[in-house]
Amino acid sequence: MELIEAPQDFPVVGGALAEADPGIHQQAIARDPRRVDVAGIEKRDGDYESPDRLAAALAGLDTVVMISAPIKADTDRLAMHRTVVDAAKHAGIRKLIFTSVVGNTVEADALFYPSQRMNRATEALVIESDLEWIIARNGLYLDLDLRSIRAASDTGVYRTNGGDGRCGYIAIAELGYALAQLAVRDDCNGQIVNLTGENLTQAEIVALVNEVFGLEVRYERITTQQCIDKFMAISEYAARGIEVANMLAGCFDCMADGGLDVPSDFERAAGRPVKSTREQMLELRGAD
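Structure (tokenized):
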């Protein structure tokens, strides 16, 4: 059993795989293998934009977890994903798992749609590849918005354009657990699964953060353009370009319209119920 992962997003997958099957042999493929900081995992050099490097890295593998490529200006993410799928077929990979994003078609009217359209196009590539496959659609990362809500304690107000829309936030550690189970078991092969937690509004998420972290932050809805401006004022997002700010604000826009309110398949995928959002927050607090 092998693993290809983006170390900046899923460093926990390797540990979860080791727990799921202590005898498993893992490899992490990354542009810079030195960034893979997980004990007991062989590191291989590979790049979604280099067919030759990727083909060599995939040699001899059985199962691949393909993490969606990050959004960057002037980057053809679909072409990058096609490189992975083609290399996997050429290398004789048996099973391919793609990490996509939840949605219920309402997002077609939101600013998020260009990114989501790429996700769905990649899903089609995977499904039509003749490999064993699983599409793992993730909810929004609890870790990231939790960080933003805690940072908002400086002003006492957390602002997004998500409004009263609901979304099944989920911690990266929970996603790692589910992906590890999907990798070592075959009962979800040929299926699309939603890996999400409780469907909560922005105000409900903020209230939970206040409870768990002892804060006094209130939620305030802003416009989509104001949310774009907010992200562009943050250096780490601005450095990646307006496309990222549009995508992030578009996620909340999509949420407000109900496009991220989907049923969870976590228990079917992972073999246990998803942890409550409060429990996930407590674990993230303990990891501080």
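The chain has one domain: 11-286. The first strand starts at residue 27 and ends at 30.
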